[in-house]
From TrEMBL:
Keyword annotations: Repeat
NCBIfam families: PPR (TIGR00756)
Stretches that traverse the bilayer: none
Stated name of the protein: Chlororespiratory reduction 21
InterPro entries, alphabetized: E2_motif (IPR046849), E_motif (IPR046848), PPR_At4g14850-like_plant (IPR046960), PPR_rpt (IPR002885), TPR-like_helical_dom_sf (IPR011990)
A Pfam family the protein falls into: PPR_2
Species this protein is from: Linum tenue
PPR repeat spans: 69-99, 100-130, 208-242, 309-344, 410-444, 512-542
Highest taxon of source: Eukaryota
A Gene Ontology biological process term: RNA modification
Cross-referenced PANTHER family: DYW DOMAIN-CONTAINING PROTEIN, OS07G0578800 PROTEIN-RELATED
GO MF term (any one): RNA binding
């Protein structure tokens, strides 16, 4: 009675009750030697998950000599593996006087299950070496195949395949699926296909869904989409009904192909199979819709799901962060925290990525604190995300502290640091970090190179740009890499070498919107407007890309600097009429600048007032500059009031207004504005410029006398001033300014 009670309690997961019954038996005087259900009792101890409790039953059995029974010893082995006690299991196995197939299987599968793949394969080889066979059982082979798949050990996998054939196990359904899985994960698609072909004539094995699923999944993971789709259709034609695993594999295929039409068909199949509430299928559907640019549908599936698990939450929060929905990502993160408490690594990384996109330092600091509580700050992924976050928020001191505290600095972490320095205009630090990374034998990738090229753009130093270009060629970074190609086009354009920008553009076999925008912006930057207009016409002829907001920003900026009022209006109106693009603040700023330069100040002012979006200080500042150039003091006052309402501490715009008043002879206003400047306590940063001469960089600031050739430089400036005066230039002086006609 007591024996069966212990067995029932152990089978039902009531482990403490099972152990209590045994202890009551001992207290009642029941002879230990007559107890016959030790494997059930050991199972109960294993269910507690405590190595210490396991050692107690082990000592008890050793004391009464029950370890001579292989059945009991195997149960103890299983218990130790269930508790994750690898060393205890290994030691006990070595001390066992007798081992059977279950002993070997328990050890081989235990090593494999806990990720000790090499040890699992070594033990299999030892078993074969000792016995010359595999005990006519399949468990050891399955575990070993799993280890081979996890380590991508094709050599060992083939050897095990030989043992399977030798022992005539090659028609076993489980081993067939194990072999296919192993070959696919090792990248050996051909041998996986051979295994499948051998069993197609066996109707029983052929009807096994698992084998078809493993094969389709293998094709997908090895980027053989057409083969995966063909096999899926063949499966349907054979009358083998797909299950959730099949559907998940095919949805991943749709994500790879970015084929939303196929994805919608599979979604329909999901509904017909009544799998729409399966959490794995729902997660795969969410991933597919996000990857195929139908984020709203993915969010709808998530919101309607009654079975939101951790993986689904991680999927939707990550996809929102990666696909341009950072605010939605953070809102979902807050919802998750309310419902579930602390996040896992995937969800935390997604939230950090969203904060980086929005440059939300305060929220990022809160997430940093959460990472500290969870003990994740030393994780390379979290560290890289934190470095990126602080860099995006302009806090490079915090970014460096996080980076320096990382035990493992991987390529992602280095890229985040270099990118942070580049984005925050620390070019020298970015270059130093790049050299430090190389000194640690880390090979840069395309992201690293793009960051360094952005440094070249910032410095506009031709020799540095050439050096990086040579580095790209030497290290095999292809120009066909769109990210690198785009960065090179922009870097050469910023350095003034449009011929090289155009050469790279023409060499690129694949171009995206950024490629076209970069070359258009380059031509516009250098005043080559006709070539820019022609390039835009070429862009319109392509079917792969379509003009976007950045394209029109480049076009309108060039029109502004070139005084092309008619062309500017043409492109501005084309945004809504031809491309269904709503102009943003930057487009209105370009138009205001264009109209202001042309003297159409009132039209520029009216355009600002009619904007559907709120004007910022830059658009008002552009109009203020035009008011100064055209001497319109009355409008300048109105414009300045808008600027100082938006930015009360502005020094640059107050200086501009003061100069306008000075040129107009309004000395009371000059005194008032300069008093306001002094009262703010803020000083205007002096201007800085540099020039490259014979591969050397010469830097200058306003009123600079630090250059070793200072006297020669100022003498040359004086000589140039004399020459331009002789050519008829009359500099503006106080007397001419006071006597000039102004609008009030």
């Amino acid at each position: 009675m007591a024996n069966s009670l212990i067995k029932n309690y152990a089978d039902d997961g009531m482990f403490v009750d099972a152990i209590r019954v045994y202890l009551d038996l001992l207290e009642s005087g029941f002879p230990v030697q007559e107890f016959q259900f030790f494997p059930c009792l050991i199972k109960a101890f294993g269910g507690l998950g405590s190595v210490e409790k396991g050692e107690e039953i082990h000592g008890h059995l050793l004391k009464f000599g029950f370890l001579e029974d292989t059945y009991v010893s195997n149960s103890l082995l299983g218990m130790y593996w269930k508790c994750g006690a690898v060393e205890h299991a290994d030691k006990m196995f070595d001390e066992m006087p007798q081992r059977d197939a279950i002993s070997w299987n328990t050890m081989i599968s235990g090593f494999s299950r806990l990720g000790y793949y090499t040890e699992s394969l070594t033990l299999l080889a030892r078993m074969i070496g000792d016995y010359g066979a595999v005990f006519e059982n399949r468990v050891a082979c399955l575990s070993a195949l799993s280890s081979c798949a996890s380590t991508q050990s094709l050599t060992h996998g083939r050897a095990i395949h030989g043992c399977i054939v030798k022992n005539k196990f090659d028609s076993d359904e489980y081993l067939v699926s194990g072999l296919i899985d192993m070959y696919m994960k090792c990248g050996d698609v051909k041998n996986a296909e051979r295994v499948l072909i051998r069993i197609l004539d066996d109707n029983i094995v052929r009807g096994n869904k698992v084998i078809w699923n493993v094969m389709i999944t293998g094709y997908v993971s090895n980027e053989c989409p057409s083969l995966a789709l063909s096999l899926f259709l063949e499966m349907l034609e054979s009358g083998i009904g797909p299950d959730s695993s099949t559907v998940v594999a095919v949805l991943v295929l749709c994500s790879q192909l970015l084929d939303i039409a196929l994805g919608k068909q599979i979604h329909g199949l999901v509904v017909s199979l009544a799998l729409e509430n399966d959490v794995r299928v729902q997660t795969a559907l969410i991933e597919m819709y996000f990857n195929c640019s139908s984020s709203e549908t993915g969010l709808k599936i998530f919101r309607q799901s009654p079975n939101k698990n951790l993986i689904m939450w991680g999927s939707v929060i990550s996809n929102c962060a990666q696909n341009g929905y950072p605010n939605e990502s953070l809102q979902l993160f807050e919802d998750f925290m309310i419902l579930n408490g602390f996040p896992d690594l995937v969800i935390l990384l997604a939230a950090l990525r969203a904060c980086s996109s929005l440059a939300l330092k305060r929220s990022g600091v809160e997430l940093h604190g959460m990472a500290v509580k969870l003990g994740l700050t030393l994780d390379a992924f979290v560290g890289g995300a934190l470095v990126d976050l602080y860099g995006k928020c302009g806090d490079m001191n915090s970014a460096e502290k996080v980076f320096d505290g990382l035990d493992t600095k991987d390529l992602v972490s280095w890229n985040a640091l270099i990118s942070g320095f580049a984005q925050n205009e620390y070019p020298e630090k970015a270059l130093k970090a790049f050299r430090d990374m190389q000194s640690r034998h880390l090979e840069p990738n395309s992201v690293t190179v793009a960051c360094i090229l952005s440094v070249c753009m910032h410095l506009a130093v031709m020799i540095l740009c050439k050096q990086v270009h040579c580095y790209i060629l030497r290290h095999g970074f292809l120009i066909n890499n769109i990210l690198i190609g785009n960065s090179l086009i922009s870097a050469y354009a910023k350095c003034g070498i449009m011929s090289d920008s155009l050469t790279i553009f023409n060499q690129m076999s694949d171009r995206n919107e950024v490629t076209w925008n970069s070359i258009i912006l380059g031509f516009g930057m250098h005043g080559r407007r006709q070539e820019m207009f022609q390039m835009f016409e070429r862009m319109k002829e392509t079917t792969e890309v379509k003009a976007e907001h950045a394209t029109f920003t480049a076009l309108l900026s060039a029109c502004s600097h070139g005084g092309e009022v008619a062309m500017g209006w043409k492109y501005f109106n084309s945004m809504t009429q031809d491309y269904n693009l709503e102009p943003r603040v930057e487009h209105y700023t370009c138009m205001v600048d264009l109209l202001g330069r042309a003297g159409n100040l009132n039209q520029a002012y009216d355009l600002i007032k009619e904007m559907p979006c709120s004007p910022d200080d830059r658009i008002w500042g552009s109009l203020l500059g035009s008011c100064k150039n055209h001497g319109n003091v009355g409008l300048a006052r109105v414009v300045a009031s808008h600027i100082f309402e938006l930015d009360p501490t502005s020094i640059g715009y107050r200086t501009l207004l003061s100069n306008l008043y000075e040129e107009s002879g309004r000395w009371n206003e000059v005194s008032q504005v300069r008093t306001e400047i002094r009262d703010t306590g803020v000083r205007k940063q002096p201007g800085c410029s540099w020039i490259e001469v014979d591969n050397n960089i010469h830097t200058f600031t306003a009123a600079d006398c630090s250059h070793p050739l200072c006297e020669e430089i100022y003498a040359t400036l004086e000589s140039l001033s004399v020459e331009i005066k002789e050519e008829g230039y009359v500099p503006l002086s106080q007397s001419t300014a006071v006597g000039s006609h102004t609008k009030d």
